[in-house]
Fold this protein.
Amino acid sequence: MEPFDLVVQNGTLVTAGETVRADIGIRGEQIAALGQGLRGRETLDAGGLLVLPGGVDPHVHLEMPAGAVRSSDDFVTGSIAAACGGTTTLLDFVEPEPGETLAQALQARRAQAEGRAVVDFGLHMTLTDTRPPALAEVEPLVAAGVSSFKVYTTYDGFRLDDAGLYAALEAVGQAGGLVMVHAENDVIVGQARRALLAAGRTGPQAHPLSRPAAAEGEAVERMLALAETAQAPVYIVHTSTRRGAEAIARARGRGQVAYGETCPQYLVLTEAEYARPGFEGAKFVCSPPLRSEADRVALWRALANGQLQSVGTDHCPFFYRGAKELGRELFTLIPGGIPGIEARLALLYTWGVRAGWISPGRWVELCSTAPARLFGLYPRKGSLLPGADADLVLFDPQRRVTLRQEMLHENVDYTPYEGLELHGYPVATLRRGQLLAREGEYVGPQGGGRFLACGRPQAA
Ligand code: URP
Ligand code: ZN
Ligand code: ZN
């Protein structure tokens, strides 16, 4: 047989389904064969390493406007950070400006990413207007490869009322797409904020109190009821509480097509971070906020037993100096969001696999295969099947790393995971057969990431 262009030799292949010792033969940009003793014009030794399908991060906000600032990673820096951490596909959002059609907004967002992103990317469409002209665009967008639509139950300028949520669910469900929801009850948040400010609670410590678990619990339950009635599949983003996870599990138990995502910050950190001295707690301000230790443990249990299906980062970095600091006098002015695109695989390995919550196969499923399926990219992404894109991560399960902001490639002046000890880290990342990252450094070309047309959601 003709030698392959590249053979990844001697690795332990980990997929959602199985773990096997095999070589991977690559021709051009695709996996061509798995087997023993494959011959290649070039080889990459993966002895002692795990070889996984590239990570798929389903929830990323690059260069996202947020009032006076924008998230500090753009498509260049954010995608380089993703690659160095073992993520080869990211899914970001289109946020249409007032007066813009969804198609125009998609074109503008694609133009921001094309030629700049180094990993492949897909886009979700945010729906803030559910009047007929906007909803008439849903079907053509699904056909054009934007099959997921994000709605919000909170945030001025984004929030939909129940009628709007229902209309979005109906339109997207009928078009064969997937509705993603940021689920927090806006009235509970508004009321809690007012009470805290009236009591003179203006620091970051007040942030978690302003967005209690009940706000998530109510909004998740309501969204599930609306989605059930509208017969639309629904994906709850950044589930942060036991209440939210249990609501999703109950809906699934009733046979509803409902999926839940959580994020590393809710699996590794807790609300104790907000009690850091001075203004340091601002580094952890995201919505929903970090939660209790009991919630953290409950989320791991939910991932382990299949009640939650996906782990995205909700990567949305803001510099501490200059951006988070805008809320020094008032916690409600702290831009919401934290970085995490680079450390997802490693955090989940140490805190999930090493801690005994999940198997290596489940780790791959949560970080790669399930998001690929849910957003219609499988098996091209999220698998090691012949014909799939040769997006591979070589992961050293024995590598010990102390996480430091300076070693990461994210364009931000801190990491919420500073000083955490990791046992296991990616050592090489390939995107469609091309080496992008090696030993924690970006070694790939500029750009090269391609827009991915997402298909209809597949069950996960
Ligand atoms: O605080 C957060 N999570 N910011 C990013 C936008 C969102 O709500 O997902
Ligand atoms: Zn959100
Ligand atoms: Zn988000």
Residues 213-230 form the longest helix (18 residues). The chain has two domains: 4-52+385-442, 54-374. The chain has 13 helices and 19 strands.
